[in-house]
Amino acid sequence: MLAGKTAVIAGSTSGIGLGIAEALANQGSNIVLNGFGDANEIENLRNRLSRDHNVGVSYSGADISKPDQIGEMIEGARSAFGKVDILVNNAGIQYVAPVEEFPPEKWEAIIAINLSGAFYTTRMVVPAMKAEGWGRIINIASAHALVASPFKSAYVAAKHGIAGFTKTIALEVAEHGITVNAVCPGYVMTPLVQKQIPEQAKARGISEEAVVRDVLLAAQSTKEFVAVPEVAGFVAYLCSPEAKSITGAVMPIDGGWTAH
Ligand code: NAD
Q1: pTM, rounded to two decimals
Q2: Do the interacting molecules here have an ipTM over 0.95?
Q3: Closest listed residue to residue 237, CA positions, set 195, 171, 179
Q4: Domain with CATH 3.40.50.720 in the chain
Q5: Whether the CB of 142 sits within 6 Å of ligand 1
Q6: Which one of 8, 16, 224 would you pick to mutate in the ligand 1 pocket, going by the greatest count of ligand atoms within 8 A of its CB?
Q7: Choosing from 59, 95, 120, 155, which is the catalytic residue?
């Protein structure tokens, strides 16, 4: 379905982004992986994806908080595959602390990676997508783009920001065959969530088991974590021809969390 297309997935060496890379490669898209991690593991991942799905897979180690490195990533994608048809802004980090203890450098990093990165990637791909008359931009936001939780001031601010950014760009490019959407997962058990369990326990003065039961899954009505393939499959659907009228949407996949 996506044969001949190329997808750049910011933050795809782990978790949700890696699942999205698998799902889009499975549809025949070439893939540009991005993110941090062990060089050998990333190279193995690149080879496996390419072999399993018979698509081109390249890797950029660009730091999404650095606009010049984002420029190099997009230029690299163009020299490898000719164009960028699909952009998935998925790179993200989290930090959990009361606002008066929130380190300013963590605030700056979260805004840079979770919000500003999407501005820099988007502005670089939109002109060529317009010329092509086709494009898909998918921002992996969060249920925290729609509701708040205490101790996550930077993350919630960045994710609410990405929701507004998504709607704005959708309006700007709507007549050019480009859709722009935000997908808002509830809790998905990935390294990002695993890492915050001890932080949440410390910030709230409760056990790690209580964090899972009473914090993470408290509002998620299904009482289950969302699975990576559920998010990835939806992203693949948004890239399909049938999804061409879905744009400017900020859509939860959150087990009923934001229905409360
Ligand atoms: P993860 O930690 O497993 O993966 C994050 C990816 O981003 C990794 O590939 C990492 O290397 C990359 N990354 C981090 N900082 C980067 C930087 N400066 N430059 C380039 N790449 C960078 O996390 P995840 O849970 O898969 O999260 C992916 C996205 O989904 C994030 O935007 C996150 O906010 C969002 N999200 C996650 C959940 C969840 O419960 N896991 C819920 C809602 C939204």
Answers
A1: 0.97
A2: yes
A3: 179
A4: 6-186+227-250
A5: yes
A6: 16
A7: 155
CA-CA distance, 204 to 121, in Å (whole number)? 36
Per-residue pLDDT of the chain (260 residues; tens, 9 = 90+): 899 999 999 999 999 999 999 999 999 999 999 999 999 999 999 999 999 999 999 999 999 999 999 999 999 999 999 999 999 999 999 999 999 999 999 999 999 999 999 999 999 999 999 999 999 999 999 999 999 999 999 999 999 999 999 999 999 999 999 999 999 999 999 988 998 899 889 989 999 999 999 999 998 999 999 999 999 999 999 999 999 999 999 999 999 999 99
Which of 93, 147, 193 has most ligand 1 atoms within 8 Å of CB, for mutation?
A: 93
CATH code at 6-186+227-250 = 3.40.50.720
Reduced 3-state DSSP string for 85-122 = CEEEECCCCCCCCCHHHCCHHHHHHHHHHHHHHHHHHH
Confirm or reject: Cβ of 139 under 6 Å from ligand 1. Answer: no
Phi, psi for 157 (deg, rounded to 5): -65, -45
